[in-house]
Design a protein that fits this description.
- The strands form three sheets. The chain has a five-stranded mixed β-sheet with strand order 2-1-11-5-6. Strands 3-4-8-9 form a four-stranded antiparallel β-sheet, with no helix packed on it.
- By secondary structure, the chain is an alpha+beta fold.
- Helices cover about 25% and strands about 25% of the residues.
- The chain has a single domain (about 55-245), classed as Sulfite Oxidase, Chain A, domain 2.
- It is built from ten helices and eleven strands.
- InterPro entries: OxRdtase_Mopterin-bd_dom, OxRdtase_Mopterin-bd_sf.
- This is Molybdopterin-dependent oxidoreductase.
Length: about 250
């Protein structure tokens, strides 16, 4: 019998054999997917309805930071365009903010660093079953959306990235509750240093109350939208569309 608190994370923590394949491979095994997401569809709606979406994720002290912080997902987009940005130290990189906004933005890395920034030491929980604690610094996404004049008709925020899967950019999305959560930031620094390539340089999303695959790396574009229809297959993200990951990955 499955206990009420029996989660995908606890399954993964015990599934050492599956973990050897890594999160981008294990989920492509049909039997593994069935185990990973057993009961999730039924529990997801109840979980979202009962939890306080405005609650803060736990924050930690510098002494509690992990000595090693693994990277999740893509370790290097390794495309000609990304290589050119790396060679130029991201001087030509721009983050486009558009969609349902009154004032579309094109932000440089210097622009983001000049905004009021938040630093937070939080725990990253990966669907592979590992966790690590690190410090992230960057402006709150909500403030960037306010600067762009996000419209009331917008219900979701879609993130488009520099890494490619099957020749198309990686993408993810969150709703407006998480977009305006104070711990949802556009991180350009990790542990007091500019992001390195494996961890998502130059900027990645941190949405601290969700699992790691929602924390899109190598950000290139942010769009406010009224619906997820027409974004990939309409489920809200690459892994959601491809291998039935949950769109809402709250922890």
């Amino acid at each position: 019998m499955i206990r009420p608190d029996f989660s995908r994370r606890s399954l993964l923590a015990g599934g050492a054999g599956l973990l050897l394949a890594g999160c981008d491979r294990v989920i492509q095994i049909p039997a593994a997917r069935k185990i990973l997401f057993a009961g999730e569809d039924m529990q997801r709606g109840l979980h979202r309805a009962l939890q306080n979406r405005g609650a803060l994720a736990p924050e930690f002290t510098p002494a509690q930071m992990s000595p090693v912080f693994r990277s999740n997902g893509t370790r290097d987009p390794n495309t000609p365009a990304y290589k050119a940005m790396v060679a130029n130290r991201f001087a030509d990189w721009r983050l486009a903010v558009g969609g349902l906004v009154d004032r579309p933005l094109s932000l440089s890395l210097a622009d983001l660093r000049a905004l009021p920034n938040r630093s937070q030491i939080t725990r990253h929980d990966c669907v592979e079953g590992w966790s690590a604690i690190g410090q992230w610094t960057g402006p709150m996404l909500g403030n960037v959306l306010k600067a762009a004049g996000v419209r009331e008709s917008a219900r979701y925020v879609v993130f488009t990235c520099a890494d490619l899967y099957g020749g198309a950019p990686y993408y993810e999305s969150i709703d407006m509750i998480d977009a305006f959560h104070p711990q949802t930031i556009l991180a350009w620094a990790m542990n007091g240093r500019p992001l390195d390539i494996p961890h998502g340089a130059p900027v990645r999303l941190r949405v601290e109350r969700q699992l790691g695959y929602k924390h899109a790396k190598y950000l290139m574009r942010i769009d406010a939208v009224a619906s997820l229809d027409g974004i990939g297959k309409g489920k809200g993200g690459f892994w959601e569309d491809t291998v039935d990951y949950d769109w809402y990955a709250g922890i």
